[in-house]
Model the fold of this input.
Amino acid sequence: MLTDATATAPSARRRTGRAHDDAPDTKEAAAHLATLDGGPEYDLLCEEIVTAWLPMANRLAGRFRNKGENLEDLRQVAAMGLIKAVNRYEPERGAFESYAVPTITGELRRHFRDRMWDVRVPRRVQELRNKVRVARRDLMDQPGHDAEPGIAELAEHTGLTEAEVHDGLEALTSYRALSLDAEISADPDGFSLADTLGTSDPAYDFITDREAAKDGLRRLPERERTILYLRFFEDMTQSKIAEELGISQMHVSRLITNSCARVRAEAVRGDESTEHGTGHARAA
Done:
């Protein structure tokens, strides 16, 4: 059984900066998990450890809440990082928290790097963008520097080549897409970008199904929800999910099948309850 503890191992304190009141004592559970190779006992123990450390993962997700992403989505990403940490943790390397915190934080940062750009650009170009953005700000803040710095000036200030500065400048406009209200034509009778969009959204056909599945998804364990999220929302293959979470592809397949069956059964029960309630209302 897992027990709560108010103290954190010294190595974890140095890594995270402070001890956390919600840091549980999972040392024995993690050590036993490392000796197992899948199976029901592994799944149960993994779920217990994830549940115990989930408050910490949610707290780490909260640090990124003002960066333009929904907090619930951030918590889902943090939970995925936590599951990775649980599955890959090796007790002989030190305290779990000192391993889990950078794993979860790295997952959150990777989410912003890979998912939050409206126009996907390579990581190298994103780094160039940041250097160019800082250099522009520094140069514009200098006394008497009113004009926009040129490519040659930015290259000299950053130590980059002019070609790299050019790539960084282009990336500055790639983080956010053009507004739907942006005018496409300069003509007085011109039109906006929204005026060029008018196709039907096929997602409307799935609203009822998605609503019916919500209750069943909420009742799934955290790891099963994460696997379904990766498979059906991130469009990841079963083998890729297995690699990400440190488990076998066969195990992922079994969890997906069982989870979908549980969600489907929950949706059917919800429909039957609704119909039963409607029947009573009509009889009354």
In short: DSSP finds twelve helices and two strands in the chain. The longest strand covers residues 3-4.
